C-alpha cells in the first residue's frame, strides 16, 4: 500500500474511493485504457469502503457473491451469501493480484473539486494524514474525475431522536459505529428497525444474547434464500473456474431479473408467494400476517434476504421475536410502546437506516461556481449534465451493486478512449429536448426519501433514464452513440485559449 504523500501533481484520472466500485474501476481503467495514469484516493486507512466501515455482528452481503463479485475475478468461496470479512479478503486479493493496491493513496480525502474550462482540468484540494495523524492540505490536477464513493454518509448515520432516551439505564448502540468491546452475551437486546441491518443483527446477536427483539413500526418484506448455491457447486465441479464463474453469474443474473420483474408485474401473486414461504417456515399464519406482511408491494422497497432462514430459525428457537408497534418513550428499564407494553432491554441497537450523501460529499465546482446537483440529469447512469469530465458510480437498487458499477466503469473507459481518438480535451452530456425529471433512486425506502432531493435526477427516456435491468443495460450502454449526446471541446481550442491568456 502506497503512502498518500506519493500522489503526483497531475494524473489522467482520479478515482475517489477504494471500495468495491473503486477497485473495479481501476481494473477496467488499467486494462481498457492502459496508457492512463491514475490513482485511487481513499479517505480511510484501508480499502473496503462499506465492508470495512460496518463491523456489526453478522455483517454480510444481501446479494449473491457471483454477481456482487467482479466478472474478472471468480468468487471461489463456498457460500454465495458471504460475510463481511470474506468480502474484504476478496477485495484485497483482487487489488493485490492486479497491482491496483499500488495506486491507492490512503488517508487522502477530496475536500474540493474545481473544473477549469480554460485548462480543461480538475483541481482537487486534498486533506492528507501522515503517519503521525497530522493533516496536511495539498492539491493535484487531473483530466477526469470518477467518484466511486457510493452514496452513504460514512461519518454520520440516520439518528432519530427518541423521547426519553436519556432515561434509559442501558446502552444505546448504532450499527454504523459498532463498539469493539460491546459484550451482549446473556443480555436482553432490542433492535429498532426492520431493514437489512436489523434482520442481519437479530440472528447473529441471538447466538449469545439472552433474547433479541426486533422492534418495527411496520413490516418489511423478508425472504429466506440459500446461503450456499448448490447448483453453483455442481457447476464448479464440472467446469473450469473462469467458465464456471461466467455460467453461474449468468444464471443468477437471469433469476434475479426474472424475480424482480415478476414482483413488479404480478405484485399480488408475489405477495402470496412470499407470505406463503414465510408461513411454511414459521408455521404460524397469524405471526406472518401481523409482522411479515407489509402494506407496500414487493420491491417498492429493497427486499431483505436472510440466508438459510437464519432470522426465522432464531424466532422458532425462542431466541428472538418481532414486535410491531410505535415507541412512546424510553424508560430506565427499556422502551415503552404506544400500546402500553414495556420492552425490557440491557442494550438497544438503533438500526434506523443510513444517511445518504451524494458522491462522497464532493461538491463539484465549474469555473468557480458550485454546481447544484439537484438541477442536473444523469446520462447513462454515470455522467452528469453541467459537469465536464466527471462520472459517478451508482449501482442497482434491485440487483447486485457491482453489475451496474462495472458497466459504468467500462463506459467511462469508452468515453476516455473516444476523447483520445478525437483529440477532445473535455466532454459533457447534454440532452436534446426537454426531459421529464424523476428521482435518481426510485425506491420508497425511508433512507432514500429523506435525502434523494439532494441528488441529480434521471429523465424519462434513454440515455437519461436509469433502468433497473442489467440485460438491457449490458447491451445498450456500450453501444450508445457518444457523438449524439456528448458535447465536446477539442484540445486545440483549449491550447488556443491558453495561448491567448499568456
From TrEMBL:
The keyword Hydrolase does not apply. Its cofactor is FAD. Keywords: FAD, Flavoprotein, Monooxygenase, NADP, Oxidoreductase. GO terms for molecular function: flavin adenine dinucleotide binding; N,N-dimethylaniline monooxygenase activity; NADP binding. InterPro entries: FAD-binding_MO (IPR051820), FAD/NAD-bd_sf (IPR036188), Flavin_mOase-like (IPR020946). It comes from the Bacteria. Coiled coil: none annotated. Belongs to the FAD-binding monooxygenase family. This is Cation diffusion facilitator CzcD-associated flavoprotein CzcO. It comes from Nocardia alba. The lineage of its organism: Bacteria, Bacillati, Actinomycetota, Actinomycetes, Mycobacteriales.
Amino acid at each position: 500500500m502506497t503512502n498518500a504523500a506519493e500522489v503526483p501533481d497531475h494524473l489522467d484520472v482520479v478515482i475517489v474511493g477504494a471500495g468495491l466500485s473503486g477497485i473495479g474501476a481501476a481494473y477496467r481503467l488499467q486494462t481498457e485504457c492502459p496508457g492512463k495514469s491514475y490513482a485511487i484516493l481513499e479517505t480511510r486507512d484501508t480499502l473496503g469502503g462499506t465492508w470495512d466501515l460496518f463491523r456489526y455482528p453478522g455483517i454480510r452481503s444481501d446479494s449473491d457473491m457471483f454477481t456482487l463479485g467482479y466478472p474478472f475475478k471468480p468468487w471461489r468461496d463456498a457460500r454465495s451469501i458471504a460475510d463481511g470479512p470474506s468480502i474484504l479478503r476478496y477485495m484485497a486479493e483482487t487489488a493485490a493480484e492486479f497491482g491496483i493496491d499500488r495506486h491507492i493513496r490512503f488517508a487522502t480525502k477530496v475536500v474540493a473539486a474545481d473544473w477549469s474550462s480554460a485548462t480543461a482540468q480538475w483541481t482537487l484540494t486534498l486533506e492528507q494524514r501522515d503517519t503521525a495523524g497530522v493533516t496536511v492540505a495539498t492539491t493535484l490536477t487531473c483530466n477526469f474525475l470518477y467518484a466511486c464513493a457510493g452514496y452513504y454518509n460514512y461519518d454520520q448515520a440516520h439518528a432519530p431522536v427518541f423521547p426519553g432516551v436519556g432515561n434509559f439505564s442501558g446502552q444505546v448502540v448504532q450499527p454504523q459505529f459498532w463498539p469493539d468491546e460491546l459484550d451482549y452475551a446473556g443480555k436482553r437486546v432490542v433492535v429498532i428497525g426492520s431493514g437489512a441491518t436489523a434482520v442481519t443483527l437479530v440472528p447473529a446477536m441471538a447466538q449469545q444474547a439472552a433474547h433479541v427483539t426486533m422492534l418495527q413500526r411496520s413490516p418489511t418484506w423478508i425472504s429466506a434464500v440459500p446461503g450456499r448455491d448448490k447448483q453453483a457447486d455442481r457447476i464448479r465441479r464440472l467446469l473450469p473456474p473462469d467458465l464456471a464463474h461466467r455460467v453461474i453469474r449468468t444464471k443468477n443474473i437471469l433469476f434475479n431479473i426474472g424475480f424482480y420483474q415478476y414482483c413488479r408485474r404480478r405484485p399480488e401473486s408475489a405477495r402470496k408467494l412470499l407470505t406463503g414461504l414465510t408461513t411454511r417456515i414459521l408455521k404460524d399464519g397469524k405471526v406472518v400476517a401481523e409482522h411479515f406482511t407489509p402494506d407496500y408491494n414487493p420491491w417498492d422497497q429493497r427486499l431483505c434476504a436472510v440466508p438459510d432462514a437464519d432470522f426465522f430459525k432464531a424466532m422458532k428457537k425462542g431466541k428472538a421475536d418481532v414486535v410491531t408497534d410505535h415507541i412512546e418513550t424510553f424508560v430506565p428499564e427499556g422502551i415503552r410502546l404506544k400500546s402500553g407494553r414495556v420492552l425490557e432491554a440491557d442494550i438497544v441497537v438503533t438500526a434506523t437506516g443510513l444517511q445518504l450523501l451524494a458522491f462522497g460529499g464532493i461538491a463539484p465546482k465549474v469555473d468557480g461556481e458550485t454546481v447544484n446537483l439537484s438541477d442536473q440529469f444523469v446520462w447513462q447512469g454515470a455522467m452528469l449534465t453541467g459537469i465536464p469530465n466527471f462520472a459517478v458510480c451508482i449501482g442497482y437498487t434491485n440487483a447486485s451493486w457491482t453489475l451496474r458499477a462495472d458497466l459504468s466503469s467500462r463506459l467511462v473507459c469508452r468515453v476516455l478512449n473516444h476523447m483520445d481518438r478525437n483529440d477532445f480535451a473535455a466532454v459533457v452530456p447534454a440532452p436534446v429536448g426537454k426531459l421529464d425529471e424523476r428521482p435518481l433512486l426510485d425506491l420508497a425506502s425511508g433512507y432514500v426519501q429523506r435525502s434523494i432531493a439532494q441528488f441529480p435526477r434521471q429523465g424519462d427516456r434513454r440515455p437519461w433514464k436509469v433502468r433497473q435491468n442489467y440485460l438491457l443495460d449490458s447491451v445498450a450502454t456500450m453501444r450508445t452513440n457518444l457523438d449524439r449526446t456528448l458535447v465536446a471541446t477539442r484540445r486545440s481550442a483549449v491550447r488556443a485559449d491558453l495561448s491567448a491568456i499568456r
